[in-house]
Amino acid sequence: MKKIVRLLCLVLLMTLVNTGIVFAGVSKNFYGYQVKNVDIRQFGQAIKSTVDSYNGNDGFVPLENVQNAYIYSDANCSYFIRLYPANENTNIYVVSNEKYDVKNNELTQYLDQSGCQYEKLDDRDALREYKFDFFTLARKHELGNFYISPDLVKPLKVGMAKLNNKMAKGNKKTSVFPYNNDQDPIDLTCVDTQNLYDEDAKVYIIQREYRLKQKENKYVHAYEYVVTNKNSSSASVTVTCERLAGLKDVTTESFVDLDRLDLIDTVGTFPPVLVCTAGTSIICSVPNWIRLARITAESKRYANALPDNYQLNAGGNMRILVMKYKNDPKPLKFNLKFSDGSVHNIEF
After folding, report:
1. Closest Cα to residue 244, out of 308, 302, 181?
2. Are 265 and 145 in contact (CB under 8 A)?
3. Which of these, 99, 106, 12, 116, lies nearest to 51 by C-alpha position?
4. In angstroms, rounded to a whole number, what is the distance separating the alpha carbons of residues 97 and 101?
5. 185-to-86, 182, 235, 313 alpha-carbon distances in Å
6. pLDDT tens series, the chain, 348 aa
7. Could you tell me if 179 and 332 are in contact, meaning their C-beta atoms sit under 8 angstroms apart?
């Protein structure tokens, strides 16, 4: 514990020493727009077609391995945009340097010319989530010619991870909660809705994606699947998934995560874009039992086992609640054995 305290003091000292340097060119252009009545699949395809047909001399390219994300850069201006689902709308998150005109630029011109209805994005929860995603990409060096300073508090987080593992050593693992056909209302923001109807099985599935309220929303989203059997026969339903987030995964991730965005970070292309995130978060965000209890209470509802041989009557419906990692959401695989002898497999 003494080592952790000394390390914390060292990090804070480094912050004070470097603050004078960073504040010389600070950029705080983190903001977004919401495009109304156009979902991300429709708007994302329109943006992709526009970028693919772009033939300018400057750089406007899609980000590799990250869907709906793009980087623009020339001698003076640089910016990063990423599209996010907002149910029937689309959110656009923007990070840019101080030379980027936030009121009149290529993006706003495109929105005006295309006749889109849009407004400034004021959803603080969404903006915090998108900012964390941006810093995560930058730290993984996935932003092309953008760069970011090293994580100053990484040694502290590693130390806390070791401490957490030591505390958990020898403890009995929490058993998986049995499947529960939960029908209570969900009080979360729905960020995306997709539908699937399998004509052969005559099964209709609605998938809804939700943003959680507690700190685990940095890593996972909650998903709701509503399965309706429109077949004249009952079905035995077994569901599997390659990878889901469990309760232990969520609480461990949240306990180890000490940063809001890590004291001071530097992001940019050329010319540099300097971003200041200094603050008291390193002290205030050390997890406590109250925060952990809230995370556990919220996540528990979405940590049940998947159904195994659940009997779904003809004309009936069932609901499945799960958590998926945002960076790699895996589909559910439904195996349906109908009483008439037919078997159908659906992936969604």
Report:
1. 302
2. no
3. 106
4. 9
5. 19, 9, 25, 22
6. 455 445 444 444 444 334 333 322 334 589 999 999 999 999 999 999 988 887 766 667 888 888 999 988 777 777 899 999 999 999 999 988 777 788 888 889 999 999 999 999 999 999 999 998 988 887 776 676 555 555 544 544 455 455 445 544 554 444 578 999 999 999 999 999 999 999 999 999 999 999 999 878 888 999 999 999 999 999 999 999 999 988 877 766 665 553 333 333 334 333 444 344 433 344 444 445 566 677 888 999 999 999 999 999 999 999 999 999 998 999 999 999 999 999 999 999
7. no
pLDDT digits (tens, 9 = 90+) for 280-293: 344 444 445 566 67
Query: Whole-angstrom Cα distance, residue 35 to residue 68?
Result: 14
Residue 167, SS3 per DSSP: helix
Q: Which residues pair with 35 in a beta bridge?
A: 90, 118
The SS3 call for residue 317 is strand
Q: Are 248 and 174 in contact (CB under 8 A)?
A: yes
SS3 196: strand
Contacts of 38 (CB under 8 A, 6+ apart): 89, 90, 116
Q: What one-character DSSP code corresponds to residue 241?
A: E
Phi, psi (deg, nearest 5) at residue 93: -105, 135
- 170-189: b (≥16 Cβ within 10 Å) or e: eeeeeeeeebeeeeeeeebb
- Which has the closest alpha carbon to 153: 250, 27, 265, 273? 265
Tokens describing residue 194: 């997709």
**Which of 133, 112, 312, 132 lies closest to 226 in space, CA to CA?**
312
DSSP state, residue 307: P
286 Cβ contact list (under 8 Å, min separation 6): 258
- The answer to whether 191 and 121 have CB atoms below 8 angstroms apart is no
Tracing tokens 């060119």 back to the chain, one arrives at 25
**What is the CA angle 282-287-291, rounded to 5?**
130
Let me know: does 207 contact 224? Beta carbons within 8 Å.
yes
Q: Angle at Cα 281 formed by Cα 280 and Cα 283, nearest 5°? A: 75
